[in-house]
Amino acid sequence: MTTPHQEELLPGTRRALLHRVAVAQSEGRAPSLVAAVVRGGKAVWTGAWTSVEGHAPDEHVQYRIGSITKTFTAVLVLRLRDEGALDLADPLERHLPGTGVGGATVAELLAHSGGLAAETPGPWWERTPGSLRPGLADVLGERPLVHPVGRRFHYSNPGYAVLGALVEKLRGAPWEEVLRREVLAPLGLRRTTVRAETPHAGGWAVHPWADVMLPEPLEDLGVMAPAGQLWSTASDLARFAAFLVEGDERVLSAGSLREMRTPAAPVEAADVASGYAYCLGMEIRHQHGRSLVGHTGSLPGFLACLTISVADDVSAVVLANCTSGPAPFTVAADLIRIVAEAEPRIPAPWQPLREADPAVLEWVGQWYWGTSAFALRLSADGLVALEPLSGNGRRSRFRPTADGAWVGLEGYYAGELLKPVRRSDGSLSHLDLGSFVFTRQPYDERAPVPGGVDPEGWRGIG
């Protein structure tokens, strides 16, 4: 059997991908644009379009990736959490006192809900040397908080400078060194660096009303580095995208990465309408009916996007060397759409359970919450799933706990306990789900339905 990740993309798909990249470079007036597509955990296509004849960049040319750096910083923070060095609910003050923003929790800083200002005081930090802001006090300023802590999503670049300082404090080493040792080296991201290494693209500003260009300064961001310093390549970011889905026990587990991909910040009405949400160092956007998770990035002279459709098992990376012009997320989303629609994901073969607990098999099937019908199914991954038979309503998967209960994994029932309840004779009576009673028949008089069941039973009008 040929597994999906061993298949090459079809020629028509490859041409459609190159066409989309060429249109983006041409219409966006980018000096160059390079992209990659990932499927089955590896890069299956790379392409580029450039204004320099005969010198198109390949997947190994570095571009500055801006705020995609934040995802790398978030991975370092989640590593500290998984090791027990901190809790995401910890206030910053517990680990890094004296910042003036110590009331914000680690999770709130990761999710941009800590109330911090969007930018640093003083001159535009992305276009001036980091030596102008030598310490945290210089990037936070006299008014570091512009909103109540935890109340709203407000994107904050200084917030990630603070998280970088937190990593340095708990690791006892510079952020750059920790990142290289704990993430870049284990994942083999040899072309992802804090400073540019040849070959790399130059950053350009393209005049909005004329086809002329101006070189942008390439500044070292200093204390702000954890918010946007990194340089990388389409090849390295393709490998990083695969990691963000699959995990790597040397760096971060798949479970912790699922947590990173889960919305974690209060969402404003406009964001709800647009389908945007921020997670822990990653952002979710909806495009073409798909949920895409990843991060965009920009610094003067560069635009970048890494985004993932977990459901389609397709990711895309787009890098350009211009301050504005092409929309990297839109291009990346289109690359995913092209592959997902032209070559839909081939599901893994159905496999039965190796063994099944007879007690669990006894309680799969149809259940009723009041008069609403539900089905409980046991799947080959060892989870049970509760879903409405009508197609509408609350649904969740559950995993077993050590004490015989099952805990909800998503939706309304996330974290809630599902427990089978037996009668004194050992027969199955009902399911208890967070105080809700599910019975084999609607309002089964043999089960302890809250409020009781009318003794005269079901009847017609008469």
Describe this structure in words.
This protein is an alpha+beta fold and 462 residues long. The chain is built from 12 helices and 19 strands. Helix 1 (11-28) packs antiparallel against helix 11 (328-342), helix 2 (68-83) packs parallel to helix 5 (157-171) and helix 2 packs across helix 6 (175-187). The termini are far apart. The model is unreliable at 1-6 (pLDDT under 50).
Roughly what fraction of the amino acids lie in strands?
Answer: 15-25%
Instruction: Write down the overall mean pLDDT.
Output: 94
Main sheet record = 8 strands, antiparallel, barrel
Q: How would the global form be characterised?
A: globular
Helix content: 25-40%
Strand order of the largest sheet: 12-13-14-15-16-17-18-19
How far the N terminus sits from the C terminus, by CA atoms, comes to 64 Å
- The assembly state of the depicted protein chains is single chain
Structural class: alpha+beta
The unreliable regions are 1-6
Tell me the number of strands.
19
Using only C-alpha atoms, the radius of gyration works out to 26 Å
Number of helices: 12
